[in-house]
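Can't paste images in this forum, so I'm doing it all in text. The chain is below; anyone willing to post the predicted structure tokens underneath?
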Amino acid sequence: MFYHESVKLGVELLINQYLINTKGLSDNQQLYCVLFSPSDSCEVSLDRHTAHRKLLLSEDNRKVTVVTGEQPYPDHPNRFDHWTQLLCCNGLTGRCYWEVEWKGQVSIAVTCGGIRRERVGDDSRLGDNDKSWRLDCTDHSYCVCHNKTPAAIHAPSSSRVGVYLDWPAGSLSFYRISSDTLIHLHTFTSTFTQPLYPAFGLDFGSSVSLCPMEHTLKHRI
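Text version of the structure:
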């Protein structure tokens, strides 16, 4: 992707103004760090109708934890029946930014609503098909995956991750958050034609919490 020199100069001014950490990043990565605004932050909530039965949701649908026993969720065609995954309620088609706190081993993802819910090979796993994109997080590493094509990311781990979807531009970016600083991890590019849903996959003993977004992005920059 190529950018006009005036855009690059504007980015450099923004970086200097907001003290965004860009050490070791390419020009494109620096651009992805800054080209969104506080008005892009959005609140999302977990969708109980999609949750695997070994996922326990908080009453406010803001936190999910893997448990050993199955929950008495009613049958629903949108429920995952093999992978311990779930979607959020919100189908997004604009510019949206959200943050999550995680513990254990989790996948932070975005998917089209048409992803398979029943196991057919690995097609129902987030990131293992052409309908979804994921960031795997552990205490020691990150890895991204789309359409069964993984790529390791060599960066220190952080328990908080920011996700920025620019649906019109066809970009999906992940950031680790350290000391209130957004540090770019990876950006997927594609042509999006359907609403995209924030989604999560969790291993045993793991949890994900959606962070309240009021004033959060404004505070970050």
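The chain has two domains: 1-35, 39-219. The first helix runs from residue 5 to 18.
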